[in-house]
Design a protein that fits this description.
homodimer; 605 residues; alpha/beta; eight-stranded mixed sheet; six-stranded mixed sheet
Chain lengths: 605, 605
């Protein structure tokens, strides 16, 4: 799957391209020089005159037709840049899987050509795949301070930090990576220090928005750097890759500031009576900042609960992204030392995750926090699609314990971190790309985003809805689908990466749905007759005590088959086992309409 | 768990009660007579003067703190009336369970006292448990024509129809059941022929709303009979039991008529180009009526897809609830005989159910319908909480195939069948109950509904949030919690009812998450040494081929333990098996951080 041959081809065409494009001028001077140098080395003097323009290839290893594991490859000349390297959480049918990472085959095969990984922000769906990639291919990383602070934590956990190459880049800076340069552009999102990229390639500029929203009054830092988007757009953009999470939502995402007002109202409501517990995303530093501000105003101490909350806030505080007044933070072990009306507990579990701090509180399983009538609980997050039920269950449990629970969106205790349609339109109009590829979303989000681009006047042929594995090749003249790259979902289960696949999952599903019946017998090595057994063992099928008759029937049937095989000189175990499987399955299905896994195990003695 | 003793007690108090209450007068005359007669027989003349007032007991076997399996028992004197008998669909953690029904123990134990089951409407969460109850206790059923039409179908499937006692009651009629009478009051809901009940008992009147909304312009039939609610309210109501499904939603549920306009717009948009496919609830006869009306207007034929859709529409048409113009219905096999722009296909699968017709179309698994670019697909339903993800997946698959898909609520292609807050308020104010018990909902719905009642001026002590198993005893003087009744979730899996419980589910979950490793060995009957094996069989754990080393280690470890036990004269299999389980688990966890089920099976030869 090497594309070396093709890349050589492209290099042949660089000279004429350099002459014909304007966008390499001015601020992108460095890039052009580097590019020119690169071609010089390989002797561009001998190229035919009619050489085609160079092109850039964009390949997607994740983030399309799925939520999460965002990762995009930009390939030009002999160089590859990787944008983000995320993980995804398993769907309900990926039984026992802890997390899902991209298939890194293509990166491994082309490791020598990868110049670096640029990171848009520190969310798991953008950095969570890094330890698994870096353990195979040690590529340098480039990110903003907070993003790299979070990456550092992650790499330390995986014992990868010491050999990793982390390079801090601030928003506004441009870095060189091979024949390409990457400008980091500040954006607003639900974690500080998020950036978009303007990637200048010999074939033209690619803008990748990362995750973003337009927040004119953010809690910390500046508003999104729209003027940089405008400048890049004025200089000419070949392609825009923009996130599609909220592409279905009309209008604007409200400012994070809106949450402050709601929190203030709720803190007032809870005054003098309640301990306040707020669940939110561990990475939402700005949200926690607002909670701390409110706590200070109302004279409450703040404690953190949940491992990831403690981790994130540690990094954010250390790097100066969380401003904490003196003496306001207390350890969770100190909760009892203060009256409940002087406490705010900030916790994980806003998605109803079974092992999270809030869930443990709801189900009385938290070692340090017991909740009840004196608790005022705010869920400062909306359920991610698929989590509605678990969140609802946690809310119900808390209500049953007598807690006040604020969970509706009507209180504005949460705003999204992603751009809605009007914000997307602004970016499209500022960037003015020739081509558009919607990214980060399921099919319905990508389609909606494509329709939005069409609505803004872009021709349909200049919009491409890609899939993971797709490679799009483009330059000033064309955009076309090129040779795909290997892509898929690699399952991480415990320490195992990729050792659980479709067959194992199919078995797990079967076992989980219907249970199993094991039939064990020892056969005479000489004549095949049964010496011991058959014994019947079942798990996850029925209450054994209530189904003795049925299991006795299975035993008798199996014995009959084994003896019949022996009598008829059938000694091939494959055949014997299949007969047992078939006939026992049929019997069970007839009696119960169920289809447990039937597992005959024979031994010779 | 018999309450006969208590009931005798109550009977003693009837005389004084009769004197003190007004609501027995007038139209409820019959009831009072019957009641009086009943007490006469038992010789009420000898009662002490200060005898307490009679009371009514309300017990909940389902529908509280859960969605579905609605069933309420009203018990007064020696008589029991059952309101509805529904089923629920399994949660994600009820692996392999087909459906969930109530625990009928209390009904079975008191079968002779049950005077009848009154049914509010024909939805599965109100009638789906009937076959399982009637197979144990043959109680007469009372319902409106459509409801009983659907019940008949269901009972025929279970071979129960011939011996069942179905009694048609029309809205507006009152029936006598023992010492109680039940007035059927017409309401609007997402299935025709829905009713609420005013149940007149010797202790006072209980109003049970069933599921309802207030629709001033319903598609078929009349608006909800508010004047009957008003009349009952004026005569005095002891307790209101009202549904809480939409208690969190402010305002009003829009009229079903609203959908007509949206459908018209969409039919116009699809004209001349597309086949129209509409997915909706199979029971939503009025929705299908609107689709048929639209189809007639735009000259399209209508076909039904999905077993339950065909069933429901068959019953609805036979009983006159679905008005179908001549020659408009075609069989699904006839689809190819018409151009696609002359077709409307009405299908099940609006919840993304994996085996439903729409899902099969989306995943190219439908035997008769292939979908693609020529299809205009409308999902005329909102996802029920928990189904968002599966519905989203189906939409994505359809979009990938090039179908136009209308799935957002912005097109008003669906309205709820349940009352929002303003509608609930109207019923509360018309019924003017002394006590209020919110029903049909999870904790958060019940709480919201209770808050609404409080907001309307009801005292907190007169509102009771119950749970399944709770018995509430009430009369003019008090409302209190009485002895609970057995209640829970009984799982139906294939033909088995109740033979899958928490242990089986725990095993299924374990097997489904982590798979299993079986260790089989034949031991010498005399000295316990290994004669054959140990053999290692794994399923759902890892790819065996990639984990040979690990499984070889398990084999060696098991052999070592077995031989060590034999050497040390340990022959108790429980001890040997536990040692294997413990040590193999530890080894596996250390190597993989996984916890498969370890199943040692020993045989003696």
């Amino acid at each position: 799957m090497s594309t070396n041959g093709k890349n050589k081809n492209y290099k042949l065409k660089q000279k004429s391209y350099s002459k014909n494009t304007n966008q390499q001028k001015g601020r992108n001077n460095n890039t052009r020089q580097s590019y020119a140098k690169l071609t010089k080395k390989k002797g561009r003097g001998n190229q035919p005159k009619q050489a085609k323009k160079p092109s850039v290839k964009i390949s997607f290893l994740g983030g399309l037709n799925e939520i999460g594991k965002n990762i995009t490859l930009i390939e030009c000349e002999n160089d590859i840049i990787i944008v983000d390297c995320g993980m995804a959480f398993p769907d309900g049918d990926m039984l026992g899987v802890d997390l899902v990472i991209p298939d890194f085959t293509y990166i491994e095969q082309n490791a020598d050509r990868v110049k670096g990984i640029v990171l848009t922000h520190g969310h798991e769906d953008h950095i969570g795949g890094l330890p698994f990639l870096l353990s195979k291919v040690n590529v340098p990383l480039y990110g903003t301070p907070l993003t790299l602070g979070l990456v550092e934590n992650k790499l330390r956990e995986h014992n990868l930090y010491s050999k990793s190459k982390l390079n801090v880049v601030n928003a506004g800076d441009t870095i060189r990576l091979g024949c390409m340069s990457v400008k980091f552009i500040h954006v607003n999102h639900s974690i500080p220090d998020s950036v978009a990229f303007a990637i200048n390639t010999p074939a033209g500029t690619i803008v990748h928005t990362g995750d973003f929203k337009i927040d004119c009054t953010p809690i910390s830092g500046e508003m999104i750097d729209l003027s940089s988007f405008a400048k890049v757009g004025d200089e000419g953009v070949l392609a825009l890759l923009a996130e599609s999470t909220n592409a279905e939502r009309p209008g604007y995402t409200p400012t994070e500031m809106l949450v402050s007002e709601s929190l203030d109202t709720l803190f007032k409501r809870a005054e003098n009576n309640y301990r306040i517990i707020i669940a939110t995303f561990a990475s939402n530093v700005n949200r926690v900042q607002q909670i701390i501000n409110c706590a200070e105003k109302y004279g409450r101490k703040v404690a953190f609960s949940g491992r990831s909350m403690v981790n994130y806030m540690g990094v954010a505080q250390k790097l100066g992204y969380l401003s904490v007044p003196q003496n306001i933070l207390i350890d969770i072990d100190m909760l009892d030392k203060y009256p409940r009306e002087q406490i705010v507990l900030v916790t994980t579990g806003s998605q109803g995750e079974p092992m999270s701090a809030l869930s443990r509180m709801a189900y009385s399983d938290h070692r340090k926090v017991m909740v009840g009538e004196g608790d005022f609980i705010i869920i400062s997050a909306n359920p991610i699609p698929g989590n509605e039920k678990t969140v609802g269950n946690v809310v119900d449990e808390l209500l049953k314990r007598g807690c006040k629970v604020i969970y509706e969106s009507m209180y504005d205790v949460h705003v999204s971190g992603h751009a809605c349609q009007e914000e997307l339109k602004i970016i499209h109009k500022l960037v003015k790309p020739k081509y558009f590829i919607p990214v980060h979303g399921e099919q319905k989000h990508l389609r909606k985003h494509a329709e939005l681009a069409e609505f803004l006047g872009m021709e349909k042929k200049n919009i491409f809805i890609a899939d993971i594995g797709t490679t799009v090749e483009l330059n000033e003249k064309y955009m076309k689908e090129a040779e795909p790259v290997p892509a898929g979902k690699v399952f991480v289960d415990g320490l195992g990466v990729g050792d659980v696949g479709s067959i194992v999952l199919r078995d797990r599903k079967h076992l989980g749905q219907d249970g199993l019946i094991i039939i064990v017998a020892s056969l005479d090595v000489y004549d095949g007759h049964v010496i011991s057994g058959p014994d019947i063992v079942s798990r996850g099928f029925v209450y054994v005590r209530e189904s003795e008759v049925l299991l006795d029937e299975v035993k008798a049937l199996s014995l009959e088959i084994l003896e019949d095989c022996a009598d008829n000189n059938i000694h091939e175990w494959g055949i014997i086992k299949n007969r047992i499987k078939d006939e026992v399955s049929k019997h069970i299905a007839q009696k119960t309409r169920r289809t447990p896994m039937i597992l005959p195990i024979l031994q010779e003695v």
